[in-house]
Design goal:
The protein is 19% helix and 18% strand. By secondary structure, the protein is an alpha+beta fold. β2 and β3 form a beta hairpin. It is globular. It starts with 33 loop residues before the first helix and ends with a strand.
């Protein structure tokens, strides 16, 4: 969510959005105009994300579950594939692929663990 009261229209966030979902209000397609008000409403309720949170202690027990050359698959929602790909790449995975569904929307991201995490 982008808080319309805090946004200064600097456009820094636009290239960071993997789905090109961030755009000026006047460029929002007619059939998506309702989301302008929804964005404004939810931006007041949800906190702005400004930094990555550290993982929980419980995450450590899963670190060595996937052996080298093991494959990991994620089903992703709209707009999540590129972020998951970047996380996998930075976490020791290679040969990362994105598979689109029947509507040509990225739906599955998978890769092979190529180095020790």
């Amino acid at each position: 969510m982008i808080d319309p009261d805090e946004c200064i229209d600097c456009a820094v966030c636009i290239p960071e959005c993997p789905t090109n979902a961030i755009m000026a209000e006047e460029d929002v397609p007619e059939d998506q105009q309702e989301f302008i008000a929804l964005n404004a409403e939810l931006a007041r309720v949800w906190p702005s994300i400004t930094r990555m949170k550290p993982h929980t202690d419980e995450a450590e027990k899963w670190r060595d579950v996937l052996c080298e050359n093991g494959m990991l698959f994620f089903e992703v929602g709209i707009g999540q594939a590129d972020s998951v790909l970047r996380i996998m790449r930075s976490s020791g995975f290679g040969d990362i692929q994105i598979v689109k569904d029947l509507n040509n929307i990225p739906r599955v991201v998978y890769g092979t663990r190529v180095e020790t995490i």
